[in-house]
Design brief:
Layout (H helix, E strand, L loop, with lengths): L9 H11 L2 E4 L4 H9 L5 E3 L1 H7 L10 H14 L4 E4 L7 H13 L4 E5 L18 H14 L6 E6 L7 H13 L4 E4 L5 H10 L5 E3 L11 H7 L3 E4 L2 H20 L12 H8 L1 H11 L2
Helix pairs in contact: 2-4, 4-5, 5-6, 6-7
């Protein structure tokens, strides 16, 4: 009897997905939303530091710890077969800290992370007031990340925020140095026009990630359009989270002002739909079987 083929690692599955075609990588803010994305046929999912910070009720300025990130990523990764890409902020310290960051995310079942070249306290990439570490400091973090990974397919993405601080020329220069340090892909944050996305892709020969966040500096293009510009991954980091928050706010407002939730029923998952997503019947069947 022939041995079964080994299951590809999360990193390998992410690489296979973005090498086939440009993919959407939607942000998922808990395990159940990740299961939804899998049911809907997505290729990968993403844990945003902005979403995780907001879920804790704090702004995205580097307050959430490595432990909190890893715990949430483990829960999400175990709930879905989709590869999970994670925001790892600035690596939670210097080069030696980055080693441990990579090891813990990999042990949690994550497919890859992105590291950014901001100084602490970091800022949302689409806000002003950002500061950058030196190119050499960031390159050292990338080298440490590459050295620390056990799975050669674990994906290390270098994010540069240089466009909004020093301009496009520095963003391209930094990207090339991060690739030389061993980064697998580049994430140029807060480019401002389709022409800038195209120019960056022409200058930087590597797998590229575009951030399709709302209300920021970048245009909201389709995945197909970003693909045509040279990008193989397109993040939607807070899209579902923002939609869910607005729905929650409006529902809470109805309860307060109307005294009921009836106007919102059509917008809710039914009990049956929720139980089906949770595979409730499978749990119930197994429980009964254990009792004979």
């Amino acid at each position: 009897m022939r041995n079964a083929m080994p299951t590809p690692s999360p990193g390998r599955r992410l690489r296979d997905a973005f090498n086939r075609q440009p993919i959407a990588v939607p942000g998922v803010f808990n395990a159940l939303v990740a299961k939804m994305a899998e049911r809907l046929g997505h290729d990968a999912v993403y844990l945003s530091g902005g979403a995780l910070s907001a879920a804790y009720g704090v702004p995205d300025v580097g307050l959430i710890t490595l432990t909190e990130f890893v715990n949430e990523s483990r829960t999400i990764a175990h709930a879905t077969k989709l590869p999970l890409l994670c925001d790892a902020d600035t690596g939670f310290g210097e080069a030696l800290n980055v080693e441990r960051t990579v090891q813990l995310f990999e042990e949690a079942g994550v497919a890859g992370i992105h590291l950014e070249d901001q100084v602490l306290p970091k800022r949302c990439g689409h806000l002003s007031g950002k500061g950058l570490v030196s190119t050499e400091t960031m390159a050292a973090k990338i080298r440490a990340a590459v050295a620390a990974k056990r799975d050669p397919d674990f994906v290390i993405i270098a994010r540069t925020d240089a466009r909004g601080v020093h301009g496009m020329e520095d963003a391209v220069r930094r990207a090339k140095m991060y690739l030389q340090a061993g980064a697998d892909a580049i994430f140029p944050e807060a480019l401002e026009t389709p022409e800038e996305f195209a120019a960056f892709a022409k200058a930087v020969d590597a797998p590229l990630l575009a951030n399709n966040t709302e209300f920021g500096r970048s245009p909201n293009l389709t995945v197909e359009a970003f693909g045509a510009l040279g990008y193989c991954m397109v993040l939607f980091p807070l899209t579902a989270f923002r939609a869910a928050l607005k729905s929650a706010r409006d529902t809470l407002s109805d309860i307060k002002t109307l005294g009921h939730q009836r106007e919102r029923l059509a917008q809710m998952l039914t009990r049956a739909e929720l139980y089906e997503l949770l595979e409730y019947s499978d749990y119930e069947a197994r429980d009964l079987a254990y009792f004979g």
